[in-house]
Amino acid sequence: MIQFPKNFYWGSATSATQSEGAAHKDGKGESIWDLWYRKEPYKFYNKIGPEDTTKIYENYKEDVKLLKQTGHNSFRTSISWARLIPEGNGEINQKAVDFYRNYFSSIKKEGITLFVNLFHFDMPSSLQEIGGWTNKDVVEYYANYADKAFELFGDIVDRWFTFNEPIVHVEEQYLNQNHYPMEVDPKKAVQSAFNSQLASAKAIEKFRKHNLDSKIGIVLNLTPAYPRSQNPSDLKAARIADLFQCKSFLDPSIHGGYPKELVEIISKYNLMPEYNDEELDIIKNNRIDFLGVNYYQPLRVKENPYEMKSDAIVMPEYFFTPYIMPGRRINKYRGWEIYPDAVYDIAINIRDNYNNIEWLMTENGMGVEDELRFKENGQIQDDYRIEFIKEHLEFLHKGIEAGSNCVGYHLWTFIDCWSWLNAYKNRYGLVELDLETQERTIKKSGNWFKELSKNNGF
Question: Which of 133, 318, 329, 381 shows a CA-CA span of 20 to 30 A to 24?
Fold first, then answer.
């Protein structure tokens, strides 16, 4: 039997936008997802928007009971900035305060450790209109929002996160056009990245002043960059990919500063953000207590063999290109490679290069399309999900045995949730959601997860 350390956190993660529903209810302000869906609903799978997500806003009392029934001793969700402060800055929405206090308190009453994240891709649309993360004023508004959240919910929340996967909103808003406002502007991408890191540090600074009996961290999606070969050009491509994808937020969050080579690259191509020494000091002096790590797939890269035009837009592909490894295992529904070995590599990297900081796996999971195919006697028999979790836990355990300071594992996700442009195309949950009836049914994996938590291993 594979046994995990005592008091290991077993649970799952979701976000406000992906689970709450009630996108326009009880005074909630508009987020960029509400705005985008209103403008271009055809871009969302089956035209399902954020109004029709899992509706935890209405069903949280029953859903929290399902947390217990599926073995959760911990759970992560987020606060909707636009629900709490509808305009992003200014007046507090009291109905939102009441909802979150009731929701969070019900989780705590079940003896479940509560992790709460402050930002999960859901910028209030009123703030996006003035530039979102490219605007320093928004950094201050976020710090004020974080300060208010600590004041309102600090007595309930056990652990806080400032951001979930900040590299994603940077890339998808200003490089890849998968998040609103769908621009291609590397200069804005770099400014957004710096401002997001500064905002994280300012939130931590606010957190320290409250003297709460809790910890604060950041959730980063760490995708190890594996080179196609040991050729120097492929190795260089992997090193630069790691600078962009991992170190750009990992180093300032833990070490308090940016890698020299990353700064040199950004400077060489005239992409340096607006910043000052005071801001660098804020980042240096306000580091995380612990780290959340999301992992789904590896990043395999090779050299870019082509010479770029002198006036070409400087994109990540300028320095490396994706490499599709022959014979790879793949989740065909999501198009992602399945490579659990990377979990061990992440664990050792944190141990050796990041002060062996306390960390937990905050997301890992498998999305599958049309899961009703696997329904027998009223229950989805998702053995594929159980095997996926087992494989990743084996490598996580190996990393822990080697001394990496991992304290928990959170699956994505609890109840089948809405997944941005993909809506409900792929299902990830331990609990099935019937979109028409809103009925919740525990899958085979949900029963297995309860045993995993009970036995602290498998």
Answer: 133
**C-alpha distance across the termini of the chain, in Å:** 6
- CB-CB contact of 247 with 238 (8 Å): no
Alpha carbon distances (Å) from 214 to 52, 223, 298: 33, 28, 32
Spatial CB neighbours of 358, under 8 Å, sequence gap ≥ 6: 289, 290, 291, 405, 407
The per-residue pLDDT for range 106-159, each reduced to its tens digit, is 999 999 999 999 999 999 999 999 999 999 999 999 999 999 999 999 999 999
Angstrom distance (rounded) from CA 239 to CA 256 = 20
C-alpha 1/C-alpha 456 separation (Å) is 10
Evaluate the omega torsion of the peptide bond into residue 441 and state whether it is cis, within 30 degrees of 0. Answer: no
Q: pTM (2 decimals)? A: 0.97
Work out the average pLDDT over 202-215: 97
**199: CB partners within 8 A, 6+ apart:** 119, 133, 138, 139, 142, 143, 162, 163
Structure tokens at 105: 């308190």
Alpha carbon distance 27, 9 (integer Å):
34
Q: How far apart are CA 350 and CA 346, in angstroms?
A: 6
Catalytic position from the list 20, 30, 165, 171: 165
Instruction: Please indicate whether residue 165 is annotated as part of the active site.
Output: yes
**Are the C-beta atoms of residues 295 and 361 closer than 8 Å to each other?**
yes
% of the chain with per-residue pLDDT over 70 = 100
The position carrying tokens 């271009």 is 40
451 is catalytic: no
C-alpha gyration radius of the chain = 21
Judge contact between 78 and 118, C-beta under 8 A: yes
Q: Is the pLDDT of residue 3 over 90?
A: yes
Q: In angstroms, rounded to a whole number, what is the distance separating the alpha carbons of residues 58 and 54?
A: 9
Which H or E run contains 77?
strand 74-78
CB atoms closer than 10 angstroms to residue 325: 14
Q: Which of 171, 363, 371, 432 is catalytic?
A: 363
Residue 256's CB is within 10 A of a number of other CB atoms, namely 16
